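step 4 of 6: structure.
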Amino acid sequence: MTVLVLSGAIGAGKSSLTGMIAKELGTKAFYESVDDNPVLPLFYADPSKYAFLLQIYFLNTRFHSIKAALQDDNNVLDRSIYEDALFFQMNADMGRANQTEVAIYKDLLGNMMEELKGMPKKNPDLLVHIDVSYDTMIKRITKRGRSYEQIQTDPSLVDYYHRLLDYYDPWYKNYQYSPKIRIDGDRYDFVENPKDREIVMGQIKDKLHEMGKI
Ligand SMILES: Nc1ncnc2c1ncn2[C@@H]1O[C@H](COP(=O)(O)OP(=O)(O)OP(=O)(O)O)[C@@H](O)[C@H]1O
Ligand SMILES: Nc1nc(=O)c2ncn([C@H]3C[C@H](O)[C@@H](CO)O3)c2[nH]1
């Protein structure tokens, strides 16, 4: 049984690479709830009001996916539960959650992590982190075109996205739940360019080979 988890900022290419990995390795893909997420547009319209609710929504849907993925055979998930705390911490630092919400969220997250320890597989086998610069992130967000994520619609997102990248750097350095690999999302256009896709898939397969997983 091999479980891969993707990480990276908004629009880094996690969902795209998840689909490619699943196809290449013949594994099942699990996607974050985005288009069917009723809270996400509310959050972008009024972050202070909906930060806590959105976080609970994501934690709940993420936990459903993880429970399914860590029971089964070979799976790949398009975002890790370890990033949920990053998002919430950042929003809390921006004053979008009060102390009671922060305390309740941390307790609930800790409680869920305890549950994971009791599962047949406690951690993913490999974290695949896609690193992107601010410019690449914006290019991809523009390309995907979700209206509520556009900096033209909401200029305050410029600061939000810069901050997010600042939080991701130490997060990746400190991540130690599993082996990890960093993909250069600025350099490799693995969506449009088959050669780049081959190189990135090669990097992931080499790592899995080195770990004795394939
Ligand atoms: N390496 C890449 N080269 C070119 N285009 C890319 C690359 N990665 C992603 N894209 C494009 O950027 C957009 C965002 O990609 P994707 O939805 O996979 O990102 P994500 O990391 O899953 O985002 P989110 O965190 O918002 O769920 C899509 O339009 C996708 O086609
Ligand atoms: N506030 C907040 N907390 C999270 O845990 C979280 N996870 C994802 N997202 C947002 C980023 C993309 O817009 C969109 C798709 O990833 O959802 C989050 N937003």
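step 5 of 6: annotate
 - Residues 47-71 form the longest helix (25 residues).
 - The domain at 4-211 is CATH 3.40.50.300 (Rossmann fold).
step 6 of 6: archive
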